[in-house]
Batch of 4 targets.
Target 1
Amino acid sequence: MIELSGVSKTFTLHNQAGAVIEVLSDVSLSVRPGECVALTGPSGAGKSTLMRMIYGNYLARSGEIRIGGTELRGAEPRKIIALRRETLGYVSQFLRVVPRVPTVEVVAEPLRALGVSAEEATARAEALLTRLNIPQGLWPLSPTTFSGGEQQRVNIARGFAHAYPALLLDEPTASLDPANREVVLTLVEEAKARGAAIVGIFHDAAARARLCDREIDMGRFAPARAA
Amino acid sequence: MSDAPLLSVRGVAKRYGLHMGCEDVSFDLHPGEVLGVVGESGSGKSTLLNCLAGHLPPDAGQVIFDTRADGPRDTVKMSEPERRMLGRTDWAFVHQHARDGLRMGVSAGGNVGERLMAVGARHYGDIRGQAVDWLERVEIDAGRVDDRPTAFSGGMQQRLQIARNLVTGPRLAFMDEPTGGLDVSVQARLLDLLRGLVRDMGLAAIIVTHDLAVVRLLADRLMVMKDGRVVEAGLTDQVLDDPQHAYSQLLVSSVLQV
C-alpha cells in the first residue's frame, strides 16, 4: 500500500549561505495492508521528515513514493489532494484549524469532503469524540482554546473519521492519560484489523510493541557525512 | 474529479511601459480548486488577477475559460459585452475594499438583487426572497435587508459583497485580498464562511493575498510571485513547509510567529 524506493531528502537554505543539509538517503520501505511499521531513532534522525514526504508535505529529492499505486513525486497538487481525501490519512502532532469552527465540524470535515451527508458525518464525529472522552459540552466550541491533550484527541478523532486505507501517525499517544491512550491504541488496532497500512512514530515503547509488526531504524538511512 | 480545466492561463503578460507587471504566467485551474497567489506588494499578483478577470487587457497570452454554452473560449479575445456577461454570471470578483464592489447608495437587498436582475430575474418577490436567503448565508440578519451598506461594519460589507457576487451561482471567483483590512476575529469568520461556500458550491477560486495564514487555510495550491514572475508553485502546505526557491524561503521565514 505504501511503497518507497531510493528516497532521499536534502534541505537547501538559500538565505543561509546556501547551506545544504542532507537528512535522508536511499530510503526504501514497503508497508502492506493491515501492517503497522514503526519508525525509530533519536530526534533529528528524520522520522518526521520521512512521514511528511510520504504525505506529500515535503518534496523528496530523488526516489519514488507510491501510495496505493499513485506516484507522489511530480504529481499534480489536485492528485495529492484527492489522495489525501480518499486514501491517505495523517495524524500530526499539531491541530491546525480555521478558528471559530466547532470541534464536531472539525472532526466531521474529512467525511464532508468525501460527500458524506452532514447528519451521517456528524454522527460519526460525535461517536469518536465520545470514545475519546471529549466532554459533550466542548463539541460546539472551537478546539483552538482546548488543552494540549484535548487538541491531540480532537486531531486523532479527525484522523480516524474516515477509514483511510493508509495512515500516518506521528506520536498519537504522546500527551495522553492511560485511559485515553488505551482508546487510541484500540483505534489503531481496529484500523489494522480493517486492513489499513500504517506508518507511525511512537516514543511509547509499550505502544510500539503492541501495535507494530516491524521497526525501522532511521539510522540506516543517515547520509554519509562528509568530514 | 473532472479532467477538463475550468480555466487555462497561457503566457499571460502585462507591462506598464518599461516596467513589468507580470510575465509569462501559465497555469490550469480545475472546478472546485482554490489557488492562492502570494508575493509582496509590487510582485504583480494584483495585475495578474485583473488581467485574468478581464479588468486589464493583457499584452500577451490567453485566458481560456470553459464556458457553459460554447466550451473553452479565450476570454481575452471575447467582445466586451460577452466578457461583461461572464462577469455577471459565471465569474465573481471580490474586491479588497467592499465599497469598490458594492453600490453604496442601494440597500443590502438591492445590492444582491441587482446581480440577479442583470441575469434576467424579474419577479420582485423571488428576487427579494433570494436576497434574504443569501444575507442569511453570509450571516447578515434578514432584518437589515433594507439598510444601506454605509450603515454596515467593514466585515459586514465584505460579507455583503460576497453575497452579491455568489448569488448567481458563479463557477469561478477572483478575490483580491478578501480579508485585508479586517480585524483578526472578523477575518476568521470570513475564512470559515468562504471555506464552507467553496465546498458547498464547488466553486473554483483564485485568491490574491500577502497573508500566508489565509492561503494555508483556504488554498489547495499556491503560486509565489516575485517581480512579475511565478518563482514557485505547488501544493499549498508543501510550498509553505518545504519552500524550494530562495524567495519563497525568505517569504515563509519572514512571518512573525504568534
Target 2
Amino acid sequence: MSSEETRIQRLRDRIAQGETTARAQTQSSLDAAEKLNDTLNAFLEIDRVGALKRADAIDAKIKSRAKADEIPSLSGVPIAIKDNICVRGMQTSCGSRILGPYHPPYDATAIERLLDAGAIIIGKTNCDEFAMGSSNENSAFGPVKNPWDTSRVPGGSSGGSAAAVAAGIVPVALGSDTGGSVRQPASLCGVIGLKPTYGRVSRYGLVAFGSSLDQIGVFARSASDAAAVLQVIAGRDRHDATTADVAVPDYLGELDRDIKGQRIGVSRTLLGEGLNSEVRASIETAIDAYGDLGAEIVDVDLPHAKYAIAVYYMIATAEASSNLARYDGVRYGFRAEEAPALRDMYRKTRDEGFGPEVKRRIMLGTYVLSAGYYDAYYLKAQKVRTLIRQDFLQAFEKCDAVLTPTAPTPAFRFGEKVDDPLAMYLNDVYTVTANLAGVPGISVPCGLSSEGLPIGMQLLGPYWSEASLLRMAHAYQQKHPLGAGPKIHA
Amino acid sequence: MPITESDIEKVAHLAHLEITDEERRIFAPQIAEIVSYVEQLSEIDTSTIAPALGGLTPEGERTESSRADEVQPSLGQQIALEEAPDPASGHFRVPKVL
C-alpha cells in the first residue's frame, strides 16, 4: 500500500471510521452537480434518490460491522459515469436522441465492480453523440463547458466526466476512449485521464462505437485515485471475450516505487509541425523534469504515427457503421412516427435520431466497407495499423514509456472547428495511436498556457504497463502539482 | 476518385439513412476531403504486411474465450420488451414489411 493514502482512500477511511458518512459525502457531491449544471452542462441525469439510498445502505453496513478492513475500498466514494456505460435504474442516452433515452436492464461489468466496491454513482455525464467528437459539440443535449473557461470546449468525447472531476463535483469518473476520448478531455480540463490496455477492462455494458478500439477509462485528480479505481474495474470478464487472462497487479502498491532509471522515450518528430508553441514548451519542461527525477531520456522513432489519423478514421468509422446499424427503432429507443412501411421507419428513425457527425461517420464507414473500396481503404488501413503497432513494439525495446503531448493545443473555443471535420479529427493526432496499437496511455496535467488553460502530457506504455504509467504520473504530480484550479469549482 | 452527391445518396441508402438535399450538399465535399486525406496511405508499401485483425495483445489472443455450452438464465420476454417503442402481445411490432 502507498505510504501516502490517496484522496479517495482517505475519504473511504473517514467514512469507515465514522468521521463522516457516505450520505454527507454523497449529498455534497449531488449538491455541487446540481448547482453547477446550469453553468457546465456536465450531467444528463443526476440520481439524487438512488445515490442517497445507496449511501444510507453503506452507512448502515458500516455501523453494523466491527472490522474496518471488511469495508470495501470505494465505500461512500461518489463517482460520475459517462452516459454510454449502462447503469441499471438510470438512463443511457450516449448523448443521442435515438436512444430515447434507453433504460438498460443490467449493469456494465465495470459498474457492477464499482458498486461491489461501495462506490456511489451520482449521475450520468454528457458526451459527444456515441462518443464521436473531440469538443462535446456533438452532444444532442448541448455541449459541456470547460470549467477553466466556459467559452471553451472541455474536449471530447467524455467531456462531462472530465469537467465533473475538474470542477470538484466528484473525485473520480468513468469515460470511454476509442481514439482519445478520455485522455484529450483530461488534458483540456487539467485532470488525469487513463486509457488502459485493450482487454484490461471489460467492455460489457459499454455502448459499442469501434469495438477493436474502445476501452473504458478513468478520470481523477491524482494518479493515485486513478489507480484505486482501475484496481477495482480491471480484469477478465466472462461477458467480454476480449478481456485478457492477465493478473491484475497491485497498482497502489507500485505507486511509490522510485522511477530512477526508467527510460522515457521522446520522438522529436512528434514535437514538430502543427504543435502549439506553448504546448511544446510545456512538454520540453516535463521531459527535463523527468530527467531530474532520475529517468533516462532516450530518442525513439514512430515512423508511421503520421498516418494514424487516416488509419483511425477508416477503422473507427467502419466499425461504427456496423455497430450503429442496431439503432432501427424496433427493440428500444426512439421510433419516428408516420412511416407507412418498415424501411421508411428505419430511415426516418435514423434520420431524426442521429446528429450530423454520427451520420457523417456512418456514411464514411459504409463507404469504406462497400464493394470495390474495401481493399483500398479498410484493408489498407488494417495493414498500416500493423505497422503502427510494430513501431510501438520496437520503441518499447528501447524505453519504458513514450512521452508526447496529449493534444496539439489547449482548449479551443466553441464553434472554432465545428464546420471542418478534418481539422477536428486532427486534434486526436497524439492519442489515436494507442487505440490502434492497443497500448495503455495516461494524460497528466503538466502546465498552464499564458491564458491560464491546462496543458497535458501523454505517457504511452507497453501492454499491461498501467502500474508503471501510474507510477510515472504519480512521481511527476508529487513534484509538480498544477498549482491552480479551474474558475468554476464546487 | 472524387465523391459525388450521387455517391453520398447511394451510401446513405446502404446505411438506411434518409438525408436531406442540404445534408447531401454539405456531406459530399466533407467526405471527399476525408477520403482524399486517407489516400496518403497508398504511399506505404504494405504488400508483405498482414492486416491487424483479431485480438491485439498476445495475451488477449491466448486467452480462452469459449465457455461451456450450458443453458443460462436469459432476460425474459417481459424485460426484453420493456423498452420497445411498440410492443404487442409479447412481440416487437413494426410497420408493414411489404
Target 3
Amino acid sequence: MNDKPTTRIFSPLKNFNVKIGLILVAALVILPLLTKTHYMQHVFIMFFYTASASIAWNIIGGYGGQMSLGHAIFIGFGAYSSAIVQTKFNMIPLFGFILGVIVSVIFSFLVFYPCFKLRGPYFTMATLAISLTLLNLFLNWDYIEKAVGILIPFKNTPNFWWFQFNSKLPFYYLILFIFLAYLAITKYVENGRLGYALLTIKQNEQTAISIGINNPLMKSYAVMLSAGMMSILGSFYFQYIRYIDPEIFLVHHSVDIVLPAIIGGLGTVFGPVIGTIIIFPLTELLRGTIGVVFSGSHYIIIALIMITMVLLKPEGLNATVMGFLKGIIEKLFKREAKASR
Amino acid sequence: MNSIFLQVIINGLIIGGFYALIGIGLNIIFGVMDVVNFAQGEFLMLGMYVAYMVNKALGLDPYLALPLTILILFGLGSFLQHFLVTPVVQTQTGHESQIFLTVAFMMLLQNLALLIFSSNYYSVNTAYSSAGIAVGDVTLTYPKLISLAVAVVLAIILFFFLKYTDLGRALRATAQNSMGASIVGVRIKRMYILAFAIGVTLAGVAGNLLVTFYYVYPTIGNVFTTRAFVVVVMGGLGSIPGALIGGLLLGLLETAGSFIVGASYKETVVFVTFILILITRRTLQMSKRSVA
C-alpha cells in the first residue's frame, strides 16, 4: 500500500518496540484505577516492589555473576535509615532515602571489595554471613529498639513531604516510576562500559585482566550500584508499611529477591520481570493459603520449584517467554511489525 | 578469673572440634567437585533431630542413634548427589546453579523441620547430662567429653580411609584432577556420590553428638553453616588439615571473644573474624606469588 521510502530521520514513535512499550506503560498507569479494592492495589505495589528488587539484584547477581544471598541487608539499611531520620531527628523521609543509599554504597564497598579479590564463591559465603551478623547486631542494638522494631504512627493529615497519604495510589505511582527507572538503569548498564566489562570477566577472567579490566573494581561498582538501588527500595518499603524489625535480615528475604531473577533468566533486562510475573502470584497465593495453616510450608514448595528450575531450565524462562510474546504480537500487529523491520 | 578463662578455652576447643568436623565435610565436597554446600548446617540439624527423635520415641541414649544417623544421612546424601547435584555440576558453567541448588536444599530442610517439629527449642536430657569430672578448677561434663572423643575417633578413621584405602585414594585423585582420575579408571560419578555422602554424614554425625549439650531448633543450621564457611576460609577451601586447625581456632576465638565482649555479640565476633581472614588471605596469596 505504502511503497514510498520512509524518511530516515529517527523518530522514536515510529519504532515498533517503543510503541509497544508506551502502550504497556500507559496500561500500567491506568491499572490501579480499574480496581476498587485496597488489597489488589497492595498486590500491585508489592509486585513492582519485588520486581524492582530482583532487577537491582540482577546487576551484581546476573551481570556480575556474583550470587548475593544477603541483598535484604540493603533493604534493611534503607528502611532503618528512613526510620531513624524520622523518629530520632524528626526530619522528612527524603533524607532517609539519601542516608540509606550513602550507608549501603559505602558498606557494600568496604565489605565486599576483599571478597572480589579472591577467586571462588567467597562473595556468596560472605553475604550469607553478613546478613546473619547484622541480624545478631540489630537484635541487640538499643538505639533502634532491638527486636521490637520501629513503627511510625499515621499522622492525622496526609502530607506529601512525610510520605503519608490517604490512598495507596501515590505509592503505586512511585514504585512504578522506580521500576521503570531500574529497567532503564539495567539497560544502560548492559550497553555500557560496566556491562561489557562484567560480561568479559564472566566469560574469561584471564582475557579480562589482560585487556586491562580491573576485575575487583568492576564487581565493586556493580555491587555498589545494586546496593544503592536496593536501599531506595528499602526506604520505600518502610514508608509504605511504616514498620521495620530486624527480621528483614533473615536469609529467606534475600532468597525472595533472588528467585524471580533465576526463574526469569540471570543477566537479562526483562528476566527478573518475567520471573516476578510467574512466581509472585504463586507465592502470594501459597503464603495466604497453606502458609497460614502450616508455617513455613509455602517455602517448601518454593524450594521444590527452585530445584526443578535449576535442573530443567538453568538459563531461565526469559528466551522462551519473549519468543512466545513476540509471536503473539507479530500476529496481532502483522503489518506494523513487518514495517519496522 | 584464671580458672574461668581456662574453662572458656576448654569449651572453645570442644565446640571448635565440631566446627572442624562440619568444615571437613564442606571441604571434602568442595575439594572433589567444586561445590559449596550451603545446606551443610541443615544436615547437622537433621542429625540432631534424628538423635532427638530416637531419644524421645525409643528412650534410647542419643549416642546409640549414631548408626541410624549415619545410615540416613549417607543415604540421603547419595540420593541428592545422584539425582540432583551431579546433573547440575556436569552442565553448569559458573557457580550460580549449584549455589542455587544447595540454597534450595537449605530452605527445603529448614522448612520441613519447621513443619514437623515447629519452631520450639528441644534438648535431650540424659542421666549423666550435668555430671562430669573436675580437673583442677575446670569441670568437663561427660556429654562434651564423650562427644569430643567420638568426633576425634571418627576424624582419625576418615583420615586413614582417605590416606590408605583404594577408595580414599580414588577420591583424592578425583579432587586433584578429575580428568586424569577418569582416564586411569576412577568412576567420577561414584566419587561424587561418595564425597557428598561423606560430607553431609560428617555434618549429621556432628549434629548427633552435639544434641547432648546443645539445643535443637529448625534454623540452627544457619549458625553452623556460617561457622563452616569461616573454618574453610581460615584453612583454605579444599584443605582438610586446614579445616581442623581452622575449626579449633574458630572455637577458641568465638568463646574467648564472646567472653570478652558479651555472649549476645557472638555472631558478630565470628563475622568480623571472617572478613579479617578474607583480607589477610589476600595479602598471604600476594606474598606467596611474589616469592614464587
Target 4
Amino acid sequence: MNDSLKSVQRSVGAIVLTCLACSLASAETSTPQIVKSANAFLSTLDQKQRSSVMFAFDDEAQRARWSNLPTTIVKRAGLSMGELNDTQRAAAMSLVSALLSHRGFEKVQQIMDGDQMLKTNEKNSRMFGKDLFYVSILGTPSEKDPWMIQFGGHHLALNITVAGERGILTPSLTGAQPALYTMNGKTIRPLGEENDKAFALLNALDENQRKQAILNYRVADLVLGPGQDGKTIQPEGLKASAMNPRQRDMLLDLISEWSGIVHESAASARMAEIKAGIDDTWFAWSGSTTVTPGRNGTAYYRIQGPKLVIEYAPQPLGGDPSMHIHTIYRDPTNDYGRKVAAK
Amino acid sequence: MRAALPVTAAAILVMGMPVNAHRLDEYLQATTISLEKDRVKGQIRLTPGVAVLPGILVGMDENVDSVFSAAEQRAYAEKVLGDLALAIDGNPLRPRLVSVKFPRIEDMREGLGEIQIEIQAEVPRNGTHRRLTFENHHQSQIAAYLVNCLVPSDPDLRIVSQYRNYPQSFYQVDYEQTGVGSGSPLVTGAGASALLAAATLLLLARFAFSARQRAAT
C-alpha cells in the first residue's frame, strides 16, 4: 500500500473518529450538571463573596492570573477555600468535580494533598496548604453561552471554558511537590502516569527514533509556562508520523493524562481533535533516559502538535528534581476557549 | 458528587521533600526569537535564583538603594546586550534595546521577579537560504539558558533546522524565505553592479545611434 493511500485512510479515520466523538459528546453532555453545580455554589455565597468570585468573561487580567507559584507569592483573585465555610467549600469542590473526570478530580485532590503536606512539614508555613486554592467564575454560568471557571493555587491552575457542550481545559498547569508521598498507608504519585507512560514510550522507540526524539541540549524549565500565552515555538524531536501504530497509541495514551482531566464527554471531543493531528505531533526528550521504578525521573519532555503543547519539567530548585514537577497543557489555537467563544 | 479522599494528617508520611518554591542557585535566562523578513526580534526573560541574587544585584542596584532606577535598568540591560552575539549568514548584527522592565527588588529576593528585555536588529533582505546565530554569555557560570524560535507568522518564512549546544548558550536556526530578492547575481552585490554597467552601456549605445541618425538627416 502506498503512502498517499495510507494517508487518505488515516484522514478518513480521523474524520470518522471526530464525528463519533462529537456525537458521543452531545449524547453524554455534562454542561447542565456543571451549570447546576455552579449555581448551587453561587447560591451558598453572600453578596460580598459573589462579587469577589465573579468576573467578566473577557477579563484578560483575571484569565492570566495563574501560576505554578504559591498564592502568597503570585496573588490570585476570587475566593480561597480558606475563606469559605464547610457548606460553601463542599459546593465549590462539587463544582470542580462536575467539571472533571474521575481521574482528573483525583489528580487535583492529590496535588492539593501534597501541598497540605508541605504546610505540615514546613512548620505550618503560610505559603502552602489546601486553604490557599482559589475559585473564580468568569461570565455567567450558562448551558449555551461561553463562561469560564478557574481553580488553582500552588502547582495547579485549571482554566476551563464551558461553551455549550464543549469543555476546554487549556491552558492548564499541573505540578507536584512532593511527587511521591504516602498517605493513609497508600503511596501517592500525583503525576506518576505522566512519568511512567513517557518512559514506556521512550523505551518503545528504536535506536534511530530515539536519536531523533532525544535533544542534545539541556532544558531547564517550561518554555511555554505561565505568562507565555499566544506563543508557538518551532517543534522538535520525533514526529509521530515516523512512529508505528503501537507507538502512536502510546503517545495518545500519554497525552490523555492531560486531555482526560476534564469530564469524559469534553475529553472525548478533545482527544478526537488531537488524533486528527497526530501525524504532525512531535515528541522531544531532554535529560536522563533512566528512572528508578516507582519514582518520577529527572528528564524534561515536550509533546507538540497543531493544537497541542504539553511540557513536563522536573524542577532543579535546590532539591531533588524528581520530587518537584511542573507541567503545562495548552492549545495554541484555542487557549481560554477563544476559538469557540468567538463563534 | 464524588467523595473527597480522606485526609488524615497524622497518617501522612513524606518521603524526601525539597520545599523551595522558587529558583535557587541558577540564573534562568529564557530567550524567544521571532523572525521577520527585515528584522529579528528577541525577548529575554531573566530570573535570578535567591542564592545567586546578591552577586547579581551588585551589577544592577549600583547605588544600593534597593530601587532599580530607569538609568540602572537601562545600564543593566545594556550589559546583557553586550554579552549577546547575533549574526545573519555569518555577518554580525547590531541588536538595539527596545524595552526593559524590572520587577521590584523585594520580588527578586523571593526568587521571583522576572526581568524582561526586548531587543531588535535590522536584517538585510538578501538571500533565500539564511542562517541566524544567537549566543548568550551573560553570567555563564550560573546561567540556565533557554532559547527558542517562534514559528514565523509570515508564511514566506520557513524554519528548516535548529541547532543548540548543550547549555543552550549557542543557538543556530536555518530558514528559507520567499517573496524577497532571490539573492541571484543579477540583483545582489557584484551582480547588481554588472547589471547597472550593462544598462549604462545600452543607454550610451542608444544615444550614439540616435546621434548618428540625426547627423545623417
